[in-house]
Design goal:
Blueprint lengths: L8 E9 L11 E11 L7 E7 L3 E6 L7 E5 L2 E6 L6 E11 L6 E9 L3 E4 L1 E5 L3 E8 L4 E2 L6 E9 L7 E5 L5 E3 L4 E4 L6 E2 L12 E2 L6 E11 L11 E7 L16 E2 L3 E2 L3 E4 L13 E10 L3 E3 L12 E3 L5 E3 L1 E2 L9 E3 L4 E9 L15 E2 L4 E2 L3
Parallel strand pairs: 1-9, 12-22
Antiparallel strand pairs: 1-2, 2-7, 3-6, 3-8, 4-7, 5-6, 8-10, 11-13, 13-19, 14-18, 14-20, 15-19, 16-19, 17-18, 20-21, 23-24, 23-32, 24-30, 25-29, 26-27, 26-31, 28-30
Length: 380
């Protein structure tokens, strides 16, 4: 009488922890488990499982108890075998892999069985969260009291995947520094949009990068006014606090990779007026006096426009009695704007004024004038 032969059946399933579909972050470890289930009879062939890590994953280690498997690794390929004669039962082996910075959008892992097993779940995939970092720069250092066109730039880098939530930008400006307009996106490679940014005040409360910003860079410009109360070596120091975007490492806590800082002093332009020690020659009433003043930078200074020194550098001419007349300042040499001036740099500016009285009149008392040396050449 023939003896019935039972054919073994081997099915293979692959799982992950965190489970497939769960978002993982760069640097996070995933544990993959391969489970072979033998039914009907002991195996009669060698069962081989070849598991290849996908892009953005690096192999860690095989678990301490391989569950009847013999496993080897070569690079990103894990090969595990069940021997001939493996009895009915379930056999599992686990190993770890780490998500790397090269991961893009998601990481996947697939197993290919040979030698007879069938695969029920062959591939597991986990989406990857975005990684958000930021740096902060300033338009000019030092910042200058009253200077126009000054700003901070926050350059945000979105890596690994697009943002999945709004990214808020909380930036409390230093004392004496206020917004001169609403922060805006001025460049970068990400397809990003912003909203909610205030146009005035001392912080950016409500400002955000909307969800869905693609991988790339985002440059956010924060335009500022600088007042005299900001002057000092730490006057322009500033840290922005970014949070959200779907990056678990970018939260409201401070000191994270998405919280950029910039350290910059604030100076009031500091230039003293120097002139000859003697008064200028006397002039009759109604006469035009042409002379010059020299402004010397006693500290690092900035002059932003060609008229920047006019309000304060030699604004009046006076005589010995205290009488004064307005002064006109001509084109300075070198021409403004000059940008940042080193200590000791000089600017020579022609000045002219008309003495009081009527030319050719009966009053012949000379006006002996001197451009007021008490003023500072200050940026306004």
């Amino acid at each position: 009488m023939p003896v019935p032969v039972t054919t073994p059946a081997v099915s293979v399933a692959k799982t992950a922890s965190p489970a497939a579909g769960t978002t993982v972050a760069v640097g996070q470890t995933i544990t993959y488990t391969l489970t072979s289930t033998v039914t009907n009879a002991a195996t009669t062939t060698l069962s081989t499982l070849t598991d290849t890590l996908g892009a953005g994953l690096t192999f860690g280690a095989i678990g301490a108890n391989p569950g009847g498997y013999t496993c080897t690794t070569v690079g990103s390929v894990v090969t595990c075998t069940l021997p001939i004669g493996t009895p009915i039962g379930s056999y599992s082996v686990s190993y770890t892999a780490t998500v790397t910075a090269a991961a893009t959008t998601s990481v996947s892992n697939s197993v290919v069985p040979t030698g007879g097993p069938t695969c029920t779940t062959c591939t597991v995939t986990n989406p990857v969260s975005p990684t958000i970092t930021a740096v902060k720069t300033v338009s000019v250092s030092p910042l200058v009291v009253g200077g126009s066109g000054q700003f901070y730039n926050i350059t945000i880098t979105i890596a690994n995947s697009a943002t999945t939530a709004a990214l808020t930008i909380a930036d409390t400006l230093a004392t004496g520094i206020t917004l001169s307009g609403a922060p805006t996106i001025t460049g970068g490679t990400s397809t990003a949009t912003g909203s909610g940014c205030p146009a005035s005040g001392s912080n950016t409360t409500g400002c955000q990068i909307n969800s869905g910003a693609s991988v790339g860079t985002i440059i956010v410009r924060v335009p500022v006014n600088v007042a005299l109360t900001a002057v000092g070596n730490n006057g322009g120091n500033n840290t922005a606090n970014l949070s959200g975007g779907g990056d678990p490492a970018c939260t409201a806590a401070t000191g994270q990779a998405c919280d950029p800082s910039v350290n910059v002093p604030v100076f009031a332009a500091d230039m003293s007026v120097t002139q000859p020690a003697t008064l200028y020659p006397s002039a009759l009433p109604g006469s035009t006096v042409n002379t010059s003043i020299t402004c010397t930078a006693s500290n690092v200074a900035r002059l932003a426009t060609s008229t920047a020194i006019a309000p304060t550098c030699g604004a009046t001419a006076v005589d010995s009695t205290g009488a004064s007349v307005p002064v006109t300042i001509g084109t300075c040499t070198p021409a403004l704007p000059l940008g940042t001036l080193a200590a000791g740099a000089t600017i020579v500016c022609p000045v002219s004024y008309v003495t009081p009285g009527t030319a050719g009149g009966t009053d012949t008392t000379p006006f002996q004038g001197d451009v007021d040396r008490h003023h500072q050449c200050d940026q306004r």
